[in-house]
Structures are given as C-alpha cells and as structure tokens.
Amino acid sequence: MAPGRPSRRTTQQPKSYRVDKAFEGLDIDLSDSEAEKEQGSGGSSDGAEEEESEVDEYTLADDDEEDDVDEFDDSAPTSNEEDGEDADVDMDEDVFGPGSDNEPGTTISTHKTPKFNRRSKGPHRKSDAVTKNKISGPKVQPPNRFNRGLGSDVRQRGVEEWVKGGQETRFKNFFGPTEEDYEPGLKSRDLWEKQLTLPSRSAGHLRRSFWVSDATLQKEMDTLRNWYEDTGQKYFEAGQTVNTLDEEPGQTYMFKDGPDSMNFLLGEIQKPQMHTMKRGNFLSTAQPFGPNPKRRGWSFNLGTRIQEVQWAPNEEGRTQYLAVAVEHKSTTARQYKSMRDPNPSVFTATPSFPASIQIWAFESVGKGDLDPSKPPRLEQVICTDWGAPKAFRWCPVALHDSVDSADENIVHLGLLAGIWSDGKVRVLDVKHRKSVQAAQYIHYSKAAFDIEIPETIPTCLQWLSSTTLAVATASGVLAIWTLTRPGVFPTSNPSDSRHFRSKPWFYKQITDTYILTLSSGYPSRPHFVSTTTVDGYDRIYDLRSPFFDSCASTRGRMLNFTQAWHEQTQSFLSPDEYHMLGHSPIRCYYRDIYAMRIVSSITCCATSPVHPCILVGGTDGMVAATNSTEKMMNTKCRPWQQPWFKHEWRRAVDELALKAEPAKSRVDGDEANGQPPAAGTPTDVATPAPNTDGSAEAPVTIPSAAILSQPLIRITEGYKAQKAGIAYPDDGTRRHKEGAKVITIFEEKTAITRVAWNPNLKFGTWAVAGTNSGYLRVEDLGD
C-alpha cells in the first residue's frame, strides 16, 4: 500500500438477526466496528474508552464455518459497578424465555452497540477466548436499531419463529382478513373433521353452511314465494300449455333403442349372482347380498346413457323426487357414426323430435332414511317435442314447504330450467295430480319462459339465486335473467306475445371460446361465477365488476367437463389432466389444492349444501367420496377417500379384440340351447366344471354360452377407505418403462356420467350416480 494513502477495508453485510416483538419500531446501529462507531460520533462521548470493557462482543463465523454461530466475549465484565444513567439496563425475563435463542443466564450489557467482527486476518480479528453457541433455525432479517434508556443501544435476538401463526395466515389468505371472514371455516372444520369420507346424520352433522345466516335463507325463500303468489303463478298459467297423455301415446316419448334387457353381475366378490333386468326395471341393492344387509338403495336399468340427474327441493315431505334424463336421438333424422356428423348438436341446434324427462319418487322413513321396503315408482314423465334435454336444474328454493302442502290433490315440484337440443332455454312449472298409481305423462307444448340466444346455442346453465338464472353459450357469452324483473315474461296481449323476446339484464362475452361448464357460489357468494372453456382455462368472475374482477387458473391440457361449488371451503372444484380433483379458493383462484385422485379421468363431481363430502366419478366406472375440509385448512393433512362402487361394462365376447378359446361347460335347460335366463331371476354365474387332474383345488367355474354372447355389467362394492396421495398407488398394475406415459382406455359405456347429492337437509345422505350404459344407482350412504 502506498504511503500516505488511506487504508480501504471492504465490508460485508452483517449477519442477520431477529428483533423481539417488545423492541419493534426502534433503531439499531449497524456499524461493523467500534472504530466506525467512534468515527460516526466524532469521539464526542466522554468515558467511551472506560465503557468499552463492559461491552459484549459478537463475532460472526467465516464463510467456511457453520451458519448461525455467535461468539460471545466472556472476558468482558458484566457487573453493574458504575452508578448513574449509564448503568446496565435490566432486560425482561422474556428475552431468555422459551422463545429466545439466547442461553439462560446470559447477561447482555447495553452501554454500547455490540461490535461485529469478521473472522479474518487483520486488526478486526478477535483472538481472545470466546464461547461458541450454535443456534439452530432459519436465517432472519438484519435487526433495526433502537434506543433504550437515555441513549443506550440494545440488540435482541429472542423473537418468535416466523412460522408461528401460519395457520392463521392461511385462513386469512383463503377466507378474509377479519375474524368474521374465517370463523365459519373453523366451525366447518370442527364440525365435520370426523367425517372422513361419507356423511352422517349423527350429532347434527347435516346442517346448512356457516357462511349463510338463517335470516338470509329466509329472505331468499320469501322473495321467491311472494313473487310467485303475486304475479309468477299468473305468468306460468297464461304462458305454459300442458295436457295429459295416455300411456300408449306417452310411451312414444320414452327411449326405445338399445337392448330390452341387460345382465348384471352383483353381490359378493367371491360369490356373485347373475341378475337380468329389463329396460325401466329396478332391483334392491340389498338383494344380491342375502337377508338383512345394511344397504338401503335401488339399482335401475334405463337402457342408455344417463344424461342428467337432479333432486327436486322438498324439505318437509317424506317423498323425495329425482329427475332423470337419458340420451335421446331423433328417429327420423339421418344417423351418423361417431365423430362423423357434419352438424353435431354441440355446435348447432337440432330439429325438434320427441323426448322426455323421468321423475322418480322414493319414500323415506324415520329421520330421513331411505325406506327399503317401499319400491320406487315412476311418478311423472315430462314429454316434450323440443329435442333431447341436454341439461336442467331445479330452482334451489321450493315454492312450498312441502310439495303437497298447498293443494291436497296436486304435487307441486317447483321450477325446472332446462336446455333442449333445439337451441332454446325454458323454465317449466312442474306439477301433477296426486293419488294416481300409474305414471302420468304430462305433455308440455309451450313454456312461459322460452328464450333463444341469437347466433349461438346455450351449453350450460345455473341458478344464481331463487329468481336469477344464468346461461352460458358456445360463443363465450354469459346471459343472466331475473324472473322478478319487468319484461321477462310476455304480457297478456296475444299480439305482443308473438314477437316477444325476453332480454337479459346481463349479456357479456366473457371469453372467446366455447363454455363447457358454469358454476355459481350460491348461496353464500352468488355474485361469483366460475366457468371452464375449451381453451383449457378455468375462470372466475365477480358479476359486480366482471371485466376488472376476474382471474384465470393455470392452463390444462384436457377439456374439463365438470365443476362444482364447495360451500364449506368457499372454493370451486375442478379436475385436471392428472386425474386429480383440486380446490380453487375464491381469494386464491390461481392455485389448486388437491384433495383426491383416482386412476382414470374424472368425468363428474358433486357437492352438497348440507355437508362437505364430495362425490367423484371417472371413466373407469369408479365412484369415490372424500371430505377435503381438513386438507383445505392444513396442507400436510392427507384426506381419506372411499370408493362407493365400481361399474364395469363388457361387450359380447365375440366382439372383443382379444378372443379367448371356448371352454366346454356343463349346462342344462334353456342355456344349453343358447337361450338367456328369464329376466328378473338370479342365476349362478357359471356351472362348475369337474377337475380332471386329480388335484384337491376347487373346480373352475366356466360361464355359459348365453352369458358370453351378450353384454354384461359387473358391479363391485365394499372397497376399503384409503388415504389419497399425489402419486399413483404402487399396486403393480401400472408398470411401464421409465419415462413412458401411459393412459388407459376404458370402454365408453363403463364411464360414470352424472353424480348428485340430495340437497334437502334431512335427506342429505342420499346419493345418485348414472353411467354411460344406462345403469342408475340411488342409495342412502349415511348412518
């Protein structure tokens, strides 16, 4: 170094320290050495050299040493021999409490700021004997300077860990910053944390959401009922044309294609039974398992794909009504092969043809249990000439406390909004006569609320409240009508009604592509709507400011055909291409919190307003349930999932790609001639063939030729619950080369198409699932 040239020392950022809560907001001197401090103060402080001996010196480790190592100078005196204002300041006991990083019994002198020394060569190296204290924990921010007591500087490291209170921060991020925002979420967790997969009626586990008050629900109910009694009923009576059909003409609106009967393999996995059901018949889910089973439900064979299932609102009645729509096709139009139709119905409106919606009635007993002793009955068939029903939703609020409370001779189910393949949206006021044994065929030729969106077709719809209906279209438009607004229904003047067109109060193009699903945050967040589109994005909109308050999720690589609002966690549910179901909270919509996973693509999911359990169906025919409330509150929790049942469809053996060699079997009676067994009677799956090798093993069962020559449906149940994980279960069934991607292709008719929970409070444990083969299952899953 040249003489006369001032020395230059490269300083580094001092080690990070934490500051105790008690000293937040004060200042700390960050000077590296005592020399710098004296330089900064100009040496004006008297007695500084005498006080220097009473300072505890902190030294920091070198880069090659371990982090978080502090060196305390034990040689420095720590007595309080000097009197006056410059004496040591007594520290609070909390500084060295359980939350502190300092050792108990250590006294920190506070006359001057401790010096930072680098463990390097030079005058700043501390060579005296020191005591090394290894302190574990994450790195923290540099401390602030603060003054305490007439200019005395104090440095404190005894602060709480930054991770303390992480759950509270999570609640605030998901639900809101105030206690009123996240307290309902905590109540939901405490009430339903013991329900791991399926709902229960015990201990008040069926109840409405904590996010909505009873006064809000009552106001919603009063708004609809007062409007209907004052003006709404008159609109529907004047604009809706209904007449009753006999059974013979009514049957023309029912599905007639497909096989007349289907073989079902039901019962225990080791001893299954063969049951044959005709189209439109049903069977108790308990029958294949012998006497006195703990199963309350019914299995149906409706013949073809289940298009839609929805429970009607009926809180106080003992009878529950289920609306079911199956796939309908025109009998007069030209039939194309799959993926060959030049004008598919998903993009263009179809010509009108007969179709129907079936309404089945189920009886209850006790406090809402499904009555297995009373078989279900087909109460009403809604017959229309508007094409196939593509989707429909019941109004979430019933017009009466009970469907038969207003008139003893009329069963009033409520308002049903639907989309038909002719490209129109209609709202029907559904009712029928009571005390009639046979099914009633009610033909609707005209609807009071009948709208057509120009230059596009509707794709999905959702009730935002008891009087507000939202409709999404193939062009990305969202339209919303409120039934109580003037100008929604045509006037009584016939000349005006001919050219009448109901105009929505909200009509915006919210996306540039096809909208697949539409969900609403009703009842607690009705102003939030979520959509899935063919571009791979899920989007949320606040209808109060739809263009500014919107958010998109991460882009998926597959089309998402299902979505649901989970009231208990204030989030929207949607699957992804990895076969996982994720939560998207309304305050963190861009992130997914995965709750469950199945081994195939998720085709449908359902939630309930009276409990947090979720139903999920996949292309492999599996229907599973889970409760993800705990997972939302704690990411380290692994939720349980419980398979309800599995549905497998097999085509005739002669049509299989891989053909097995026929085996000789011993058959008698009609089966020897290739005739199938009589419908409705259980039979053995196969005839035991005697062993010829002299072994002691049980004889091998061989299916008969009549069973092999027809399609077959196998239903398996009784699966045990397991914890859901991100990775696939290591069961040896998914072995493939490292780095290879495998997607299993299942039979089209094996897939689950629709699942739904009963939204009524006492009957919230009732569930329904529909399949692509026409198998429908209704069961009470509660205990």
Automatic annotation (TrEMBL):
<feature type="compositionally biased region" description="Acidic residues">
    <location>
        <begin position="47"/>
        <end position="95"/>
    </location>
</feature>
<protein>
    <recommendedName>
        <fullName>WD40 repeat-like protein</fullName>
    </recommendedName>
</protein>
<dbReference type="InterPro" id="IPR015943">
    <property type="entry name" value="WD40/YVTN_repeat-like_dom_sf"/>
</dbReference>
<dbReference type="InterPro" id="IPR052416">
    <property type="entry name" value="GTF3C_component"/>
</dbReference>
<dbReference type="GO" id="GO:0005634">
    <property type="term" value="C:nucleus"/>
</dbReference>
<dbReference type="GO" id="GO:0000127">
    <property type="term" value="C:transcription factor TFIIIC complex"/>
</dbReference>
<feature type="compositionally biased region" description="Basic residues">
    <location>
        <begin position="112"/>
        <end position="124"/>
    </location>
</feature>
<dbReference type="GO" id="GO:0006383">
    <property type="term" value="P:transcription by RNA polymerase III"/>
</dbReference>
<feature type="region of interest" description="Disordered">
    <location>
        <begin position="661"/>
        <end position="698"/>
    </location>
</feature>
<keyword id="KW-0539">Nucleus</keyword>
<keyword id="KW-0804">Transcription</keyword>
<feature type="region of interest" description="Disordered">
    <location>
        <begin position="1"/>
        <end position="151"/>
    </location>
</feature>
<dbReference type="InterPro" id="IPR036322">
    <property type="entry name" value="WD40_repeat_dom_sf"/>
</dbReference>
